[in-house]
Every structure is written in C-alpha cells, then in structure tokens.
Design brief:
This protein is of the alpha/beta class. The chain contains 24 helices and 27 strands.
Length: 673
C-alpha cells in the first residue's frame, strides 16, 4: 500500500491537503493530511467518501456518441480517435462557415486545478471562440463589490483568527462550506472569541453561534449602514484611520447614514432596534473583529450594495489595521503566477463575452453568429445555471453541436452529441491556489482513471493538436507548465519548481495590515469608478422595484443555500452521500405549512411562472415565514420532478452581472401529479 499526497480539487475555499492510500493502482482510502497547518488532518464528510466517487458504478468510461433524440440519453460507445476527429471536423466546418465566435467552450470550477481548468479555457482562447464570463453563477457580484471597495486584493488571513475577539459570519454557513476555518474558530472560543452569525435562516453555523441575527433576505446593506450610524453617533469610529486610509466617509456620514437610524433599519431588516444597537456596540468595542463575508447575501438584485456596505465596516473602526481584524471574502490571486501561459496562450485580446448566468438565453438568442457548437467541462448548466429551463431548451435544439466532458452522465451530458469520459481530480496532477487561505500546493496523481477516461488537460491538448494549434502549452507536460507559470511570477520568485512539485503546502501570506488597490489606494466609501459605471458611488439601501412587484404577486421568496452532503451536483454519483442528504426538499416555516394545510414529508409543487418543481416538504422553524428554502441543486433523477433552477430568475445583480437566485418568488402547494 502506498500513500500519496494530493490536493482536494472540489470547488471549496478550504483546498485540503489529502493523503490517499493506493494499492495496485486502486484508491483505497482518502483522508486529511496532518501536515497542512490550515486543513489540519481531516477531510470533510463529502470528500471522505471520494473513494466511492472515484469507484462509482455510475461513471462514464468510454467516449459516447448520441444515437437517440437530444436529451433522451441514448448513446453508443466509440473510440477516442473517432470522437475527437468528428468533433474537430465539425468545429472546423463551423469556423469556416460562421467564424470562431460560433464556438463556445469552457471548463468551470468542478476541477479547481489551475491547469485542468485553465488549459481547456486556453484552447478556446487560442481558437478565438466566444468567451464565457465565468463566475457570474457564483461570485462575480461579490467580487465586483469587493474590488470596487478594496481593489483586487485578498482579504484577512483566516489564520489570524488567533488574534481576534469577535467573529462575524455574514451570509455564509461556515460549518457547511468552510469547515476548516470553522475548526480554527471553534478552537479560539474557549479563550473568549465571540461568534455572531448574520443570516436569514438558522443554519448549522447559526445553531452553534453565540448570537444569531435572522436578517430578512436582501437587507444586509441597511444593517451595515445602521451599524455605521450607531458607531458614528456613539463616537466609536477610528477618525485617524478614516482620515489616513479611507476615502469619502464624511460624505457617507452626511448624506447616507442619517437615514439609517436603528428604528428604520429594524423595520427594513426585521431585526429589533435594540439588537442593531447591541451589534454596533459589540462590533465597535471589539479589539480585533473578523468578518467572514459569504456570497449568500449577493445572489439577489442588490447584492453588490450589500457586500460593499459590509466590507466597509472594518474601515470605520480601523479594524483593517489590526491583526485578527478586517474582512475576508477571498484570499485572492496571491502569488502572481503567470496563469496566462495556460489559459490565454494565444488568440485575440478580446472576443465576444457570454455571461454564464444567462447561458440559456445566449444559446437561444445570440446572432451574428449564433452559437453553433458548445463544449462544456466541469459544469452541469442544465441543473446549476439560473433559468435552467432555457439552458435545456437550447441544448435540445438539433442545430447546436454539444460536447460534454464529465466523469458522469450528468443531465447536461444527456443532451450532448458526444460525451467524453473525464478523469476525477485524484486521477490528475495539478497546481492549486486556495481561495480561502494563503496556500499554494501541487497535487500528485494518485491513480489512473477508470476505463478510457482522460483529464481536462489531456483532452484540451488532444483537441488543440487536431485544431492545428502550436502554442507550447498544448505540448508541455504538467511539470513543464508549472515551471512556465512560476517563471513569470514575481510573488513566486522565491519558489523553485522542484520545491513546489514536492507537494508540500506552501504558505504565501501577505504581511502587515490590509492593503487597498483602488484608484485612490484607499478603502473607498465613495467610489468614482462606480459612479463612472452608472452605479451609486456610496453604499445605500433601497427596495428593488422588480422584487417589490414579484413579492406582491407571490407569497414566498426562494432561499437557496449549500447542500451539506450534496453541494451542487458533483457528488450526485455517490449513493451513500445521496442517502445521508436525504431526498431533495423544500423547507417551510410551520405557519406557512399550516396555512396551506401541508404536512412534513408530503410531496409538494414549488411553482412560479417559469416552472413547477416537485420536492419533499420539510416543516421547520429554522426558516422564517415567507421563505421557501431549497438546499443544494439536486438533479431530476432525485427530485419528484425537475430541479430548483428551473424556477430561478436569470436577471443580473447590481454589480458584476451575477446570478440572482434569491430574487425568485413562488408558491408551494400539494403535489397533484
Ligand atoms: N457543503 C458544501 N460546500 C460548498 C458548497 C456547497 O454547495 N455545499 N458550495 C461551494 C461553492 S461553489 C461556493 S461558491 C462556496 C459558497 O460559500 P459561501 O460564499 O461562504 O456561502 P454559503 O456558505 O454557501 O452560504 C450562503 C449563506 O447565505 C445565506 N443567505 C442567503 N441570503 C442571504 C442574505 O440576503 N443575507 C445574509 N446575511 N445571508 C444570506 C444562506 O442562508 C446561506 O446559508 O461554498 C463551497 N462549498
Ligand atoms: N439555485 C442555485 N443555483 C446555484 C447555486 C445556488 O446557490 N443556488 N450556486 C451556484 C454556484 S456558487 C456554483 S459554483 C455553481 C456550480 O455548478 P457546477 O459547476 O455545475 O457544479 P457541479 O454540479 O458541482 O459540477 C459540475 C460537473 O462537473 C463534473 N466534474 C467533476 N469533476 C470534473 C473534472 O475533473 N473534469 C470534468 N470535465 N468534469 C468534472 C461533475 O460530475 C458535474 O457534472 O452552481 C450555481 N448554482
Ligand atoms: S473541506 Fe473542501 S477542500 Fe476539504 S475535503 Fe472537503 S470539499 Fe475538499
Ligand atoms: Mo460557487
């Protein structure tokens, strides 16, 4: 039995170092690596079962060609050469007739490795294809709000929590999505670290907090401004820090904060005025308060305003200057690797951009040229994209030539003309940069993939060769490309490729207080660049007219959140995790269930103008009245009918053109077949 050190490539801020036991080329066990200071020796409940994921009987093991109507899921196995030749021939014909913009191809985040994600995108970059504006289904709104406020910099180091006296988890369920940070937090509680959770439902994390503030969805900007109002009123601002390191607070104080007195904020947020006072006092008197920002508050119409307002709070008290204080959204692109050698090896500087969160619309409506060929790796848009009904309608069109590279026959793959079997991360090697802590790590391949499955990296190279692309990235091995990425990296100058390849976690954390890379070089309460983009230059809160209209038409607002054992759809092929998560549910408050004469466990129809989805009802006061909570995005195989994103709006958030799952309203009734 050999034990191989690898890295967890699932889309997760923790990015665990793993120890993988392998016998005769077969993975026997996956566990945490004690030699990683942050992920500290344990894997989460999902990845602990990755032996089952890797050996799932549901994996695709050969290339498949469609034999039935689109979406019927009828395929015949074919050889790799036949499949790749056919794909390349079709792409060449489409490029000849309509130009390269008629192609859209990408790898998204289900493989977090820089090379396995980057090289697929590099292939389409080099071909001059239309480009996916990635991340809009996830964090582009949050990222845009952070950038407008602090600039493109990473946030507080999670390991600095040892210096904190207050942790505010604002819009994230840390126990579910960032469990290794949660473990660090838990270790600091005996010495007095206070934990406050601000989130609409009683999540796993909220249940473990010292104090949970059940805020009304979409009102976080008002709460943050209310806290600032009290801090200013009570002399709890750090005026010296404000003058030295920030821009525009006087204007905010004069023009915006007077409207956010606690009584009005209470009416907006559904919290008690006394609790807003208490939160402000707790925050304002804390020595080193650490705010962990989640994307939850940004997945709605005015999400950017929310995250921006919260990210400004540590500037008011000067917490950004103190070890253990500040805010963390992402650790960002620390260690300036030259990733362009992988993801933009050649090709035009710019090309038509397609927003991921409106993928269905783009495939159906774009002209000059329309998208005629689609290549999808590491993404299941028929389930996870907003307004998934439009994605499915587009995938069902005969004239769209679709190739899906996936380890499983996902709902998206079932609509493909060709399905290519993908290796899972443990069967690949790659370089990883965490987005939730300051570590870089090289992950080795633990075992070969089953059957004929190939990695994203291999498929990108094979297709590039057939398309006549000559860039070195499409010839070099992973270790050779690693060398290229490090060569162009000033932040990594001290790193040599052999050290990185050894697979030890490498810590590269910023030193000193929080830096800002805005146009002014300061934390911007007032942002001229936002004003130039036609956005409010200062944070504010107003109701959104479209949301107000929908709220008048429908009784319930959708709340989406992370599935604990079934995040998105990547673990759908693990039977034991499906069982542990239980059936796909919709959760209603007892008062909402009673008024509809619904009982726990019965089948219900969650519906709006877009679709009707069949789920199992859970009745729980963990969710507030007026809300329908649907955790995860479970596929049609598991639900009674459909999938939650058939219901979701595909309009953009205010910042970063992000998804707005939670700007969705609906009704829930008994399932009538
Ligand atoms: N187990 C598990 N792990 C995951 C994932 C998963 O689905 N499951 N997803 C992975 C991915 S892709 C990502 S991007 C990260 C996401 O991780 P984070 O960005 O940290 O966000 P989440 O933990 O998903 O939490 C979102 C929370 O916000 C709450 N929320 C919703 N609306 C509001 C609001 O208006 N205000 C406030 N204050 N809170 C609100 C929700 O109830 C939910 O609990 O996690 C990753 N890890
Ligand atoms: N309603 C609602 N919808 C959401 C969200 C929400 O909160 N609410 N969250 C959104 C967020 S934050 C995100 S990030 C997205 C995630 O959405 P997706 O990117 O679709 O994520 P998954 O469903 O986890 O995985 C996609 C596919 O990648 C495949 N895969 C796994 N590993 C590999 C690999 O190494 N190579 C290849 N080629 N394929 C692989 C899996 O089998 C799976 O079919 O969903 C978004 N959708
Ligand atoms: S916590 Fe995240 S990085 Fe760690 S094993 Fe689980 S999914 Fe992977
Ligand atoms: Mo995400």
């Amino acid at each position: 039995m050999a034990t191989i050190r690898s890295v967890c490539a699932h889309d997760c801020p923790d990015q665990c170092s793993l120890r993988v036991d392998v016998e005769n080329g077969r993975i026997q066990r996956v566990r945490g690596d004690p030699d990683h200071p942050f992920t500290a020796g344990f894997a989460c409940g999902k990845t602990h079962q990755d032996t089952e994921l890797v050996h799932s009987p549901e994996r695709v093991t050969t290339p498949l060609r469609r034999t039935g109507p689109k979406g019927a899921g009828r395929f015949t196995p074919v050889g790799w050469d036949e499949a790749l030749d056919a794909i390349a021939a079709r792409w060449r014909a489409i490029i000849d007739e309509s130009g390269p913009l008629a192609l859209l191809g990408y790898a998204y985040s289900a493989h977090g490795g820089i090379m396995n994600r980057g090289l697929v995108n590099g292939l389409f970059h080099a071909l001059g294809a239309s480009r996916l504006e990635a991340g809009t289904v996830c964090d582009s709104c949050a990222a845009a709000a952070w950038h407008a406020t602090l600039g493109p910099v990473g946030g507080a180091d999670p390991e600095s929590i040892v210096h904190s006296d207050l942790l505010v988890s604002w819009g994230c369920d840390l126990v579910t999505t960032n469990v290794h940070f949660w473990a660090k937090i838990a270790a600091e509680r005996p010495r007095g670290l206070q934990v406050v959770v601000i989130e609409p439902r009683r999540s796993r994390t909220a249940k473990l907090a010292d104090w949970h503030l059940p805020i009304r969805i979409g009102t976080d900007a008002a709460l943050a401004l209310g806290v600032m109002h009290v801090l200013a009123r009570d002399g709890l601002c750090d005026r010296r820090y404000l003058a030295l390191r920030t821009l525009g607070f006087e204007r905010l104080e004069a023009e915006v904060l007077p409207r956010f007195e606690p009584r009005r904020v209470a009416a907006i947020t559904g919290l008690a005025a006394a609790d807003i006072e208490r939160l402000a006092a707790l925050y304002g008197n804390a020595r080193a308060p650490f705010i962990r920002l989640g994307t939850g508050m940004t997945r709605l119409a005015r999400g950017g305003q929310a995250l921006r307002a919260v990210a400004l709070l540590p500037g008011v008290t000067g917490a950004y200057a103190r070890p253990g204080g500040g805010a963390l959204l992402f650790t960002g692109n620390f260690c300036d690797l030259d990733t362009a050698v992988v993801n933009a090896p050649s090709g035009p500087a710019d090309a038509r951009r397609i927003n991921h969160s409106q993928l269905g619309r783009a495939l159906l409506e774009l002209r000059d040229p329309p998208i005629r060929a689609l290549f999808v790796a590491a993404n299941n848009p028929a389930v996870t994209c907003p307004d998934a009904g439009k994605v499915r309608e587009a995938l069902g069109r005969e004239e769209l030539f679709t190739v899906v590279h996936d380890p499983f026959l996902s709902i998206t793959a079932r609509h493909a003309d060709y399905v290519l079997p993908a290796a899972l991360y443990l069967e690949t090697e790659d370089l990883y940069r965490s987005y939730g802590s300051y570590y870089l790590q090289y992950g080795a391949r633990a075992a070969p993939p089953p059957g004929e499955a190939r990695s994203n990296f291999q498929v990108a190279q094979a297709l590039a060769a057939r398309m006549g692309l000559a860039d070195p990235a499409f010839r070099l091995t992973e270790p050779e490309l690693l060398r290229e990425m490090l060569r162009g990296a000033p932040g990594a100058a001290a790193l040599d490729a052999d050290t990185v390849r050894s697979g030890r976690p490498i810590r590269i954390a910023p030193v000193g207080e929080q830096s800002f890379r805005t146009p002014s070089g300061k934390l911007e309460f007032h942002s001229q660049s936002l004003a130039d983009d036609g956005l409010p230059p200062m944070p504010d809160w107003h109701p959104d007219p479209e949301e107000t209209r929908d709220a008048a038409r429908w009784p319930l607002r959708l709340l989406t959140g992370p599935g604990f054992f079934q995040p998105h759809s990547v673990y759908a092929g693990v039977a034991s995790l499906r069982a542990r998560e239980g059936p796909p549910v919709c959760v209603l408050h007892p008062a909402e269930a009673k008024s509809r004469d619904l009982r726990d466990g019965q089948l219900v129809r969650a519906a709006n103008d877009r679709a009707a989805v069949g789920l199992v009802l859970r009745v729980s006061d963990d969710v507030p009245p007026g809300v329908a909570f649907v955790p995860g995005q479970r596929g049609d195989d598991e639900t009674v009918f459909g999938s939650v994103n058939l219901l979701c709006a595909d309009r953009y958030s205010d910042f970063g053109e992000g998804a707005t799952y939670q700007s969705t309203w609906l009704e829930v009734a008994a399932w009538a077949g």
